[in-house]
Amino acid sequence: MRVRDEAERAASTGGAEGGDAVARRPKRDREATRRRILDAARDLFGEHGYDGVTVRMIAARAEANMALVNRYFGSKAALFGEVLAGESVLREVIAGEPAGLPRRLAEHFVRQIDKRGGTPMSRMLDRSAGQPEVKEILLHHLEDVIVEPLVAQLDGPDARARALLASTIIMGGGPVRRLLGLNDLSAADPAELTDRLTAMFTAALAPHTPAD
């Protein structure tokens, strides 16, 4: 770790010696350090939650100079936000033909159930959702990754309300997982779960049709 830190410090300083170090260290090495920091932060946030992790812990896990964490990301909160954005696959799940959206959301939900112990994303959210410092980041994530992409897929009135209703199904798994666990759902037939969830997402996303 010491050798790696000394090289990184040399690369980040000015002067002839620093310039030579920058020339010797290609951009991909700096990107590799950045990637190590992101990976370390993802693992630690998942293990301990936002409040239980320090920048020093992240730097130590990444074998990087602590100053580089702040240089590359600005703050622990900003690093949390970048990890969150990089981990989410929901934007890709939502994209595609609108007609198949309920089924894609249902299949995504079932895939998360099948992952024992949860995903890095679910563990991060479970252990960090109550932290005031990341509230704005989580709200932005919900808007940017789930609500707005859903709204863009919907026609008809009240698109945002329908997107928010579907979002409650997507995000509601977190509290259930924390309080009750998902063993019963894991034991259920995945095809049946997918069919039931498809019906739920279809109802949530469909325009309201007044009864006769």
TrEMBL record:
* Matches recorded under Pfam families: TetR_C_16, TetR_N
Highest taxon in the source lineage: Bacteria
Which SUPFAM superfamilies does the record cross-reference, listed alphabetically? Homeodomain-like, Tetracyclin repressor-like, C-terminal domain
Q: Does the keyword DNA-binding apply?
A: yes
Q: Which GO terms describe its molecular function?
A: DNA-binding transcription factor activity; transcription cis-regulatory region binding
**Signal peptide (UniProt feature, chain positions):** none
Record key words, sorted: DNA-binding
Q: Which residues bind DNA?
A: 54-73
Q: Does the keyword Transcription regulation apply?
A: no
Please give the name of this protein: TetR/AcrR family transcriptional regulator
Record organism: Actinomadura soli
